[in-house]
Amino acid sequence: MTASSASPDRNAPYDLVGVGIGPFNLSLAALADGVAGFDALFLDAKPAFSWHPGLLMEGTVLQVPFLADLVTMADPTSPWSFLNYLRAHDRMFTFFFSERFHIPRREYDHYCRWAAERLPSCRFDAEVTALEWDETADAFAVTYRSSSGAVSRVTARQVVLGVGTSPVVPEPLRPFLTEAHAGRVLHSADFRAHREELGALPDVTVIGAGQSGAEVMLDLLRRQDGDGAGGPFVRWLARTPAFAPMEYSKIGLEHFTPDYIRYFRSLPEATRERLVREQWQLYKGVSEKTLGDIHDELYERTIGGGEPRAALQPGVRVAAAEAVGDGYLLTCRHDQQGETFEVRTSAVVAATGYAAVRPAFLDTLTDLVDWDDKGRYRIDGDYRVALDPRVTGALYAQNAETHTHGVGAPDLSLGAWRAATILNAAAGRTVLDVPRRQAFTTFGAPIPDAPVASALPAAVGIPR
What we know:
Layout: E1 16-19, H1 23-32, E2 40-43, H2 82-88, H3 92-98, H4 105-118, E3 122-123, E4 127-134, E5 139-145, E6 151-156, E7 158-161, E8 165-167, E9 185-187, H5 191-199, E10 203-207, H6 211-221, E11 233-237, H7 258-265, H8 269-278, H9 280-283, H10 288-301, E12 310-313, E13 316-324, E14 327-334, E15 339-345, E16 347-350, E17 354-356, E18 394-397, H11 402-405, H12 415-427
Parallel strand pairs: 1-2, 1-7, 2-3, 7-18, 9-16, 10-11, 10-16, 11-12
Antiparallel strand pairs: 4-5, 5-6, 8-17, 13-14, 14-15
Helix pairs in contact: 1-12, 6-10
């Protein structure tokens, strides 16, 4: 399909400029491709698309079905669907016979790269350095530069932030995130680059009970010899009270629908904050298969009276850390028992998640953003960031709204729906119908005397 986006080197403002090309802004780029009268440009500092390269190990799979691709949940007729990607690579029968609903992560990454390389609106090697509101032009001014130092400037009536999230490391471990400790204290985002050297150490501690922590744990276990004698002793610590499976029941998954987002947005801020903490199993749990694979590996070690060279300890947080000899001494606290104990280890992999960060280029716009009392974006139902009334353009944000929209913010299954919602708002018309009701669950108290709605009525326009 021919994209509507013109060359970025022009005087006329774009209808939309996206900053960052991860799956969510790539979804928006794909849905906007070919929309008549709508010009978009997407910029990213990386030389090419990449998605969590540090965790693309063999055997790891996406935690959402392949239908949660860039476009299908909003527009299954789009040429940028995963099925069309398979067709383009002559793999339709191969995929059909594999009977997969959850695809390998490496394949998802390759699919996204396929789309990013072909969408004319996507420009890589373009690091955005400043975002300003130009009152004279009545548009945002976006300044970006290439790795060669070339500086460009474009204007846009609207901007969407899709800069992703950054790794979070527990405070006691942060002093060791230096070159001197490279490959010994690291976030799981960098695991793949160091997995060989970690597999050769005598003892490795993994922190974090989510999917990433489980996958690192499993990978290191598999590096032990068949009898468990070789490879590292692997320790898995987590603050959560259990190594628990992610909620994946059909009704439970309705928390990842537009219905739940609207309900969540209606709640008081304090209630939203509490719910996000309590609902950790909805988005921070581990797939049942991965937990089963870990158990199978440990079970193998017990054949013939053997003992697994592994330890699994939930309910534990790292309170302090220091370098000792050729390893590290961790002071740990079991919160339920109130007990403190020490762990000596050769290396630490922090699979402790990611968090939205405020990009440096936004400093030039800081005074015009209406931040909440915790310094976060105020985001409305169209994913529009609240700005000073002097700004007549719109600023949108993707995957920075857990505090306003709930635990579905980072979930790929809602990516195309959110992108379609933003596209409709940015275009000022209904480009793509987006559903208002998709859940059988009624979230919240029923409205008195309201007619009973059908389970899944027809799609309607832009939800507010």
